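haha ok so turns out i had the wrong file open the whole time. this is the CORRECT one, sorry everyone. sequence first:
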Amino acid sequence: MTVPILDLSRSFGDIKPEVFAAMERIFAAQSFILGQEVKTFEGHCDSYLGVPEGSCVGCASGTDALLLALMSVDIKPGDEVITTPFTFFATSGTIARLGAVPVFADVDPSTYNIDIAQAMSKITSRTKVFLPVHIFGQMAPIVGVISELHERGIKVIEDTAQAFGSTRFADGGILRAGTVGDVGCYSFFPTKNLGGCGDGGMVVTCDKDRAERLRKLRVHGSGTTYYHDEVGINSRLDAIQAAILDIKLKHLEEWNEERRKIADYYRLLFKTHDVQEFITAPVELEGNYHIYHQYVVRVREKRDELMEYLNTEGFAVRVYYPLPLHLQPCFAYLGYKAGDFPVSEKLSHEVLALPVFPGLTQSEQEALVEKIAKFFGK
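then structure:
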């Protein structure tokens, strides 16, 4: 048996007729950039996320969503942005691209999300933005510090690239990832829970003026063609991506529930095969609705050997992330060194992502965990 880390073809069958019909519609109209398809998708995202009409602004990628968000809150060279070193490069890459300074805080060892208390301790007079990441599909518990951050003049930009559909129960209601802070940023890369057939992203803000500014920033800062209010970037969502994403949005809740059932079955299998002393399952924080963009376990010993063994046996597993951002060569100028963020560094040597996607079968999970048990002599 071989099991991929991700197989998009298994869920595509559910939507294939709708996708092909949408392609015919778009090619008949010959309107490929922004336009009605994007407006329709943005409107449906407004409704899904429970934000005011016009809050969602489609763009070309999740990376651009972060860049646009930072531009929309006027980040300047020398400004400090507090974030996590345990995430994908784009989170800090966009900060550095604008000449601002990434300031790292370590992460929680059980959820892998940023340590809120440590992040708050990093605030200085130069701090302009707090940029938490809802890693692997689970919201960071940022609700309790939003008011204090705003009182101190600090904006909150949520990196929600991996958590479209994730929620947290707080203050007597359900809060959706990306709608809690000032700006939320999403990625629609094909591997995401809500993914297109190429690059795509979205920025969301409940501030009407900021949303309008974001619409200008994504088209070179232009409100009227050939007239530019400021220098923006070229980051437009195309019609084909929007149409496919709009179709997939209708299935997202069902697919996220399937991922949660897969996660539950992994936990049961770990217990059944008595590998819990070697494998630590991901923790879902109380009050959270984890959508398991990735199912990331901790392997207490011989992680790399286990990964090589499983891959050789036909079970695709991967490491997210093998080198924390504070130790990346391009960020050497920040002056961080090994040992500065011990949790992130320890995770980089222990985490392992197992297959999790709609259509993954229980027999495939059973075969994978049996191999893990065999590796550890169980």
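The radius of gyration is 21 Å.
again sry for the mixup
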